Amino acid sequence: MNQEMNGYCPELESRAQAEKERERQTNGHEKIDYVFKVVVIGDSAVGKTQILSRFTKNEFCFDSKSTIGVEFQTRTLTIQSKVIKAQIWDTAGQERYRAVTSAYYRGALGAMLVYDITKRQTFDHVARWVEELRSHADNSIVIMLIGNKADLADLRAVPTEHAVEFAEEQGLFFSETSALSGDNVDSAFIRLLEQIYGVVSKKALESDVGKMNGGDSVKLSGSKIDVISGSDFEISEIKKLSACSC
Ligand SMILES: Nc1nc2c(ncn2[C@@H]2O[C@H](COP(=O)(O)OP(=O)(O)O)[C@@H](O)[C@H]2O)c(=O)[nH]1
Ligand SMILES: [Mg+2]
């Protein structure tokens, strides 16, 4: 599949790497302990881009057009005394053609799997997205199932209990959100990041024990960044290609 068709852009991938590298070299401004890559997936028009926009900029764009560029946005926050930069990737609309590539999932430690509580079909497709994650992403990826558009309660087509049941069966975390009102968006991301932090610290611990025992060490997937002092909480810069008239 060529680059135009699947929307994967090597330039962006290298920019993401460059950003990680810059952070490693930052002096005195920002103290970043970890950068966690999180991908947002799910059917088209469920609100993925708006959830991301709410979390990283506290904005909702009524006039959003479908996303036109693979993009990531970032937000830095403190979790369990560690400064964590969430690098959250949005699709370029490839989900419409089920053409999200493995490159999109590469290195992701977490996934927000979004459906629309008013569109049953988007929930019915969640199982396919879970399969996609299981086959392309790291085994230890933390998945948060998100029922978005909770503000449209009168149009609800997916009972909360169905989603809870599915999430329990599949070992996913679950939350209902509204990108429009902002309800639960921060808390869902924070829960996901906390869980990722738990996985990464556990791997680091196992790796240390492995080394002490002289055995093969377990690979640490988070990007550990050298510590420099700086602010506790910040909404960092946005790099956006998607079309939005806000
Ligand atoms: N009522 C309501 N509309 C939403 C919400 N989130 C997104 N939308 C709308 O749903 C449409 C699709 O949103 P978008 O973020 O572009 O979906 P994506 O294709 O999954 O990225 C847009 O018209 C948004 O304004 C929400 O929480 N509540
Ligand atoms: Mg989008």
Protein architecture, described:
- Mean pLDDT is 82; it is low at 1-6, 216-221 and 225-245.
- 36% of the residues lie in helices and 19% in strands.
- Strands 1, 2, 3, 4, 5, 6 and 7 form a seven-stranded mixed sheet that branches.
- The chain is α/β, with parallel strands linked by helices and 246 residues long.
- The protein has one domain (10-230): P-loop containing nucleotide triphosphate hydrolases (Rossmann fold).
- Bound molecules: guanosine-5'-diphosphate (GDP) and magnesium ion (MG).
- Magnesium ion binds at residues 48-49, 66-67, 90.
- Residues 1-26 are annotated as: Disordered.
- Pfam families: Ras.
- This is Small GTPase.
- It comes from Dillenia turbinata.
